[in-house]
């Protein structure tokens, strides 16, 4: 949890901002298998996840998501479209962090070689043949389900809540 002191001296816990992106090409989505950080397993290590991470200080959303994509996959993307702002405070009940997730979808343009210990593997999956929900980290399976619903129904974006 982020601890911050207000001007009146009160210390409060604040929410983190995370970004995520569904990189989609030819009805396939790029997923990462979560790895380690500084040699220690990340939360939900070994599970599939959409690409993304925490927004850094002094970074806007687009810069942050593009950095995360580059660091974790080496891809440059185009057509970045805001899909979902997930601000549910109960997204994760297993820790004190409360992340607000800003989820995009985009198309891959070009890739450069990159390695990151945070990513144990990258794989393209057909949108209709995803791994089972229990093999996904966090609520990322729900984000993929929302995207698939959007493809079918073309409702207004972004979805908030």
Please tell me the CATH architecture by its name.
Answer: Alpha-Beta Complex
Q: What gyration radius follows from the Cα positions, in whole Å?
A: 16 Å
State the separation between the terminal residues, measured CA to CA.
21 Å
Shape: globular
- When the domains are counted, the total is 1
Oligomer: single chain
> What is the CATH level 1 assignment?
Alpha Beta
Primary descriptors:
161 residues; eight-stranded mixed beta sheet; alpha+beta
Descriptive overview:
The protein has one domain (16-153): Nucleoside Triphosphate Pyrophosphohydrolase. The chain is globular. It is an alpha+beta fold. Strand 3 (16-25) and strand 4 (28-34) form a beta hairpin. Helix content is 17%, strand content 43%.
Set out the fold topology.
Layout: E1 2-5, E2 11-14, E3 16-25, E4 28-34, E5 36-37, E6 40-41, E7 48-49, E8 51-54, H1 61-73, E9 75-86, E10 99-111, E11 119-126, H2 140-153, E12 159-160
Parallel strand pairs: 3-10, 9-12
Antiparallel strand pairs: 1-2, 3-4, 3-8, 4-7, 4-11, 5-6, 9-10
